[in-house]
Amino acid sequence: MDILAQAGLVNYFGKHGLGGGGAGRVDLKPVLMRKGLTKLALYGLGYIRDNRLHQMFSVKGCVRWHRPAETSDCASSSWFNVMLIHQNRAAHSKNAISDRYLPEWLDYVVWGHEHECLIEPTEVPGGFHISQPGSSVVTSLIEGE
């Protein structure tokens, strides 16, 4: 993917270098899209080792979210905020990433990496909706697949 992105053949977003010291730091900046009156802020987070990302979410300031800038004709709250995340979500892993780590101003989350298909959006206590597409093929003989 890195080579294809370098060649300009794909728009590979969501991959983040881990800056900062200690736990590390990641800056989540959206890809902004506008068409007519519709405004979409698309955030992406590719896979980071669970224990590392869990630690980063646990330390204030290690995961920084950048909202669209306010302008005279566009409030940052007028954007529809979508998060694409590729991490373990299931509770079987002690360092799985919980939806409680995600900010409440997100509108919709597409959660990749998990094999179980939970495609119907479900609302979480934070107020946003999560869809988990799951694997396109069975990869193991467990009930969730």
TrEMBL record:
One of its GO terms (biological process) is telomere maintenance. InterPro entries: Metallo-depent_PP-like. GO terms for cellular component: Mre11 complex; site of double-strand break. GO terms for molecular function: single-stranded DNA endodeoxyribonuclease activity. SUPFAM superfamilies: Metallo-dependent phosphatases. This is Calcineurin-like phosphoesterase domain-containing protein.
